Amino acid sequence: MSLPISVLDLVAMRPSEPAAAAIARSVNLAKHVEQWGYRRYWLAEHHSIEGLACSATAVLIGHVAAGTETIRVGSGGVMLPNHAPLVVAEQFGTLAALYPGRIDLGLGRAPGGDFDTMRALRRDLTQSGDGFPELLAELRTYLGPGTPGQTVKAIPGQGSRVPITLLGSSDFSARLAASLGLPFAFAAHFAPDMLLHSSGLYRSLFRPSETLQQPWLMVGVQVIASDSDAAARRLFTTPQQRFLRLIRNQPVELLPPVDSMDNVDDPWSALERAAVESRLGAAIVGSENTVKAGLEKLLAETAADEIIAVTDTWDPEARLDSYHRLAKVAASVETRILAGTDPSRGLANRHFV
Fold first, then answer.
1. Quick one: which of 143, 204, 220, 340 has the most CB atoms within 10 Å?
2. The overall pTM is greater than 0.85
3. pLDDT tens-digit readout, 241-251
């Protein structure tokens, strides 16, 4: 079958642009990729980052789901240490009640912001990411069937079995997802260094569960497709500028593309260039032929079951064009999906907790 592809959206804004405009672009994109056969539309969680309008992830998911009809919509992902597991279960249980069979719950263990933001979120500041397994276990209790003597229940949410995927950029969540028999998504779109190690570890340690009999590996990757390699590389200077500004602790709004990153108003230093290129090292940028070759190389290296594409351009039409081209490319890439392993289809979805 053809390669399953999905979208991860950070709901990026232009400078001085209202959040409503960026959110409207997200809904428009979701409508298009739904028509083009994308598997799911995921929305990120980031807090107190100027330029990204994705702090209220559950609200955005409901808005995008309301504006579409069939595509799965979910979180890529909810940063669980920021939230009480009961609240997450209630939110996603409500979403699942409103949009049955269409809601996914991707979970991460990073804070999604700095120390002061963590404090403002009322997160337990003595807690490290090492407590993530306990938070996950509590959340699964609220999404699973009620048990005798259970005094606190998620209403709605209890028994909803909202599908869960673990996200990560290291081997921590890879090991946890493998041990629990859950799908795993690796964040190579901003931290590709441990992609091969973590994906291999996930597959080698995977234990079949009620949810999955075989591992399901998703890889998030930056993708920009255009009519030529040169045109795509020029569009790619927009995310390059974002990561440069992120390193400099500056707002990360969308900026217009440039002919060369050496010609921006404040050019990058050698160290900054190395840092940006490291973070974007897995990016697939170019013509349709170049993107196809990049996807095939990624699949050969990771045996990924699904690709989650992150595409941000200054021009919304260029973004739509890139996702349209990617859909055509993915349809021509053959991949081996074992029967019954796709967590978005069939019986497996009903047992996904």
1. 220
2. yes
3. 999 999 999 99
